[in-house]
Amino acid sequence: MKDQNDDTSDVLVVGSGIAGLAAAVGAAREGSDVTLATKATRPEGASSWWAQGGIAVSRDDPEQFKADILAASDGTADPDAVDVLVENANEAVEDVLFDTLDVKFDRNGDDPDYTREAAHSEDRILHVDAATGKHVHVPFLNYLDARESVEIVDDTAALELIRHEGRVHGAMLESDGEVRPHYAGSVVLATGGIGELYGRTTNPDDATGDGIAMAALAGAEVEDMEYVQFHPTVCIPEEDEDAGVFLVSEAVRGEGGLLRNGDGERFMPDYHADAELAPRDVVARAVKAEREATGEVTLDVSPLDFAAAFPGLAERCADHGVDWEGGIPVAPAEHFLCGGVAVDEFGRTSLDRLYAVGECSRTGVHGANRLASTSLLEGLVWGLRAGEDAAGRGVERIDAPDLLERDPDLPEKFARDKFHRLRRVMDERLGVERDPDDLGRAMAVLRRLKGEVDAYVRTRTSRSLYELRHASVTALLVARHAAENDRSVGTHNLVTEPAEPPADD
Questions:
Q1: What is the pTM (predicted TM-score) of this model?
Q2: What's the CATH code, domain 230-333?
Q3: Which of 67, 170, 284, 375 could bond 183 through an S-S bridge, CB–CB 3.0 to 4.6 Å?
Q4: 104-147: pLDDT as tens digits
Q5: Secondary structure letter of residue 168 according to DSSP
């Protein structure tokens, strides 16, 4: 293992999802010393651990895989980026997940048990029950733990990048209340999504948009922030709609699960020719509309042997008091950000020696809507490529930012109250549907919130305050990009009905 008191490394990776872990592997293979810093406490704190559906591969038809990705994006994905994904998919999965980690994917006899999810035209998704993420994530962590050139430091937050004249030299890291600079030849951001900006999400609790905000504040280009994907089938236990929500994998619909409204009617054929297997944005809007019209939507799993096919999900339903035999109550919830820090085919940002991979990056693969089970694949492919490219750079120490701690601590509920205000605006104005006439008012509220938080950051340094800062910066970017895009496409769905202005408290 690396010396844990060392504050330099060849490559600093921030984040421990599959993208960050893949970047660490890529850099280590090139002979670099790697520090992987993560806010997560292992393993449940990373988004990849929660991934259910699986990881898509090209199999023997990359052109059809590409066509499905482009179709799901409503024609907005970058074809060149999609080529990078589909052309490297099989090799990356074979190399890392099979040969290196020996992930025990479900099998059908001697062959992998490929399944199908929404908007895929064929069975091409590797999976382990409906809990693929943790079965990939834990072996990945164990593999890196065993490498002497890699140090993993958990419960550690990156607060700010160390940069000068367009080049990034490291990051300010906080652990157990202590803030120190960590210098690196290259920095790879792999901080995940923005779920904590919304009241209901499938993301872990610490998904506050850190990497996106740090990169944007450092001057990096950010794109497509308006494209926030909502997963259409998140279980909402009837006893308490604000607690205990959990994702019901798209694979359940792929295996025959049907969506029914409060009147017991199957409704998806009225919305799209592919019915339950339509693109996520279409299904999410349909579920929202039917819930509003009939009071509820349930996922009918009676057409399949649910307990046998998805034992983990059946157990989770039981743990939350959900009688799946009577239909699983579902609603849309924030799931994935399709935009982020703009990167090229190697994860390079517009700042020298700064990389971004995984959900915090914008590769162009997803466009306005992500195809199911491509997030783990994107993180794996771009993570490996970024890690390899980031290796071999010299470390240069410069003056680190002076993060002040001179004023009294803020009240315990300060961050909680500000987050409540932020989430209220995001839920009401930047959800499944947006009113273009109201986005400007939402931006005004978020600007004021960011200004208030910035004032406190000037004289105080804490993880919770910087998370709030990152969340407010990221929320404002989502609102700004949404207001600037007058085209209703994919996850950016515009409605014209007038709406009440968002509350300012």
A1: 0.93
A2: 3.90.700.10
A3: 170
A4: 999 989 899 998 888 899 999 998 876 777 788 888 999 999 99
A5: E
